[in-house]
């Protein structure tokens, strides 16, 4: 069976101040053309179809167009909700839409109920595990303590139990939206840390033939059977080195996997340039970036006059301007943002405690801080779901 694996469309999202809806529509057209050209048997979309719980109307219209075009191909499609989606909204009408061959899986309680598809070698069971927010699904999945590994393990137990009851030789595909250990994040994914932990081990998914992951925006192979497709378009300058693509996966009669990357069209290249303003304006080596979307980091010790206007004369698509004066270590003028770079909420909170009272928190206090941060995240997620 030939499967096209994609994820993280983020319909409705912009790139800095540039609207991406046109590029997203071009990607949908590319997806449909790829299905035709490569004789795809099934399409899987591993979450974050939309960029937010209540997407703009234009994004909803584009999704509607994508559904009609995919249904018109007569090729089954399986989709799950991600942490950016409202599972309830995305799943509205799932029963009816399923009759057209578009299978929306947004209910955690149905994790062990597959979409059954067949090829000449027999059945393939597609299990959709929507994004599982631990605090919201732990009771449904019978988990005592909320955590990403615990809820995913419980959902996979349901998958393995269902698969074990099926005829020998039934092949299996799992769609999941999670941060799996070994994956490399970018700046454009929303933090899903719970209890100080964001990642889950790939071993959670043992026992199935292929795991189609979503959430991380870079295309990645964790094992031959566990892969991220990445987002089809860039959504932050940290993705400047990404090759945007989808996985074309062939599942053979015995469940063996081979995969090929299919490149996606991107509207412009991304470029990150760094140095004093005058050097950036004069360096001939930067000429290939003239038509790229540019993030410029200026290292001048004193902020130059009209830097954006001057940069856009040479790089008309400059979208981001960062000031990072090169200073000697210990200089008190080093920015607060620079001191916080790469630190998570827990570390920042612990540093604040240490700054205020002269000593960092003990284990009990760390646990209190962790619980408070997790509660805020869970409340934000529940609020978005309820909107």
Automatic annotation (TrEMBL):
Belongs to the SbcD family. Residues 1-218 form the Calcineurin-like phosphoesterase domain. SbcCD cleaves DNA hairpin structures. These structures can inhibit DNA replication and are intermediates in certain DNA recombination reactions. The complex acts as a 3'->5' double strand exonuclease that can open hairpins. It also has a 5' single-strand endonuclease activity. Keywords: DNA recombination, DNA replication, Endonuclease, Exonuclease, Hydrolase, Nuclease. Coiled coil: none annotated. It comes from Streptomyces prasinopilosus. Heterodimer of SbcC and SbcD. This is Nuclease SbcCD subunit D. PANTHER family: COMPONENT OF ATP-DEPENDENT DSDNA EXONUCLEASE, NUCLEASE SBCCD SUBUNIT D. NCBIfam families: sbcd. The lineage of its organism: Bacteria, Bacillati, Actinomycetota, Actinomycetes, Kitasatosporales. CDD domains: MPP_Mre11_N (cd00840). Residues 267-355 form the Nuclease SbcCD subunit D C-terminal domain. GO terms for molecular function: 3'-5' exonuclease activity; endonuclease activity. GO terms for biological process: DNA recombination; DNA replication. Pfam families: Metallophos, SbcD_C.
């Amino acid at each position: 069976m030939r499967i096209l694996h994609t994820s993280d469309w983020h319909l409705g999202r912009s790139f800095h101040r540039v609207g991406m809806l046109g590029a997203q529509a071009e990607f949908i057209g590319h997806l449909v053309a790829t299905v035709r050209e490569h004789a795809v048997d099934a399409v899987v979309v591993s979450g974050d179809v939309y960029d937010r719980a209540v997407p703009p109307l234009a994004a909803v219209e584009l999704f509607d167009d994508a559904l009609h075009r995919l249904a018109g191909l007569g090729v089954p499609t399986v989709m799950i909700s991600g942490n950016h989606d409202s599972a309830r909204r995305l799943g509205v009408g799932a029963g009816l839409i399923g009759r057209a061959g578009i299978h929306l899986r947004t209910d955690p309680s149905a994790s062990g109920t597959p979409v059954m598809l067949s090829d000449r070698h027999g059945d393939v069971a597609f299990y959709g595990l929507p994004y599982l927010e631990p605090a919201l699904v732990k009771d449904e999945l019978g988990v005592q303590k909320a955590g990403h590994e615990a809820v995913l393990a419980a959902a996979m137990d349901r998958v393995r139990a269902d698969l074990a009851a099926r005829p020998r030789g039934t092949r299996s595909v799992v769609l999941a939206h999670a941060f799996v250990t070994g994956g490399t994040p970018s700046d454009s994914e929303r933090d899903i840390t719970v209890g100080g932990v964001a990642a889950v081990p790939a071993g959670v998914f043992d026992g199935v033939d292929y795991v189609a992951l979503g959430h991380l925006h870079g295309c990645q192979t964790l094992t031959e059977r566990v892969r991220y497709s990445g987002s089809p378009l860039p959504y932050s300058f940290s993705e400047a080195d990404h090759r945007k693509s989808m996985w074309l996966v062939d599942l053979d009669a015995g469940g063996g996997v081979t995969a090929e990357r299919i490149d996606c069209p991107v509207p412009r290249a991304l470029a990150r340039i760094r140095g004093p303003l005058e050097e950036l304006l004069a360096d001939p080596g930067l000429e290939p970036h003239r038509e790229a979307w540019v993030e410029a980091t200026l290292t001048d010790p004193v902020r130059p006059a009209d830097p954006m206007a001057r940069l856009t004369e040479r790089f008309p698509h400059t979208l981001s301007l960062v000031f990072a004066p090169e200073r000697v270590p210990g200089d008190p003028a080093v920015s607060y943002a620079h001191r916080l770079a790469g630190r998570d909420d827990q570390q920042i909170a612990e540093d604040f405690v240490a700054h205020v009272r002269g000593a960092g928190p003990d284990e009990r206090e760390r646990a209190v801080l962790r619980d408070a941060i997790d509660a805020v995240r869970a409340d934000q997620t529940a609020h978005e779901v309820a909107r």
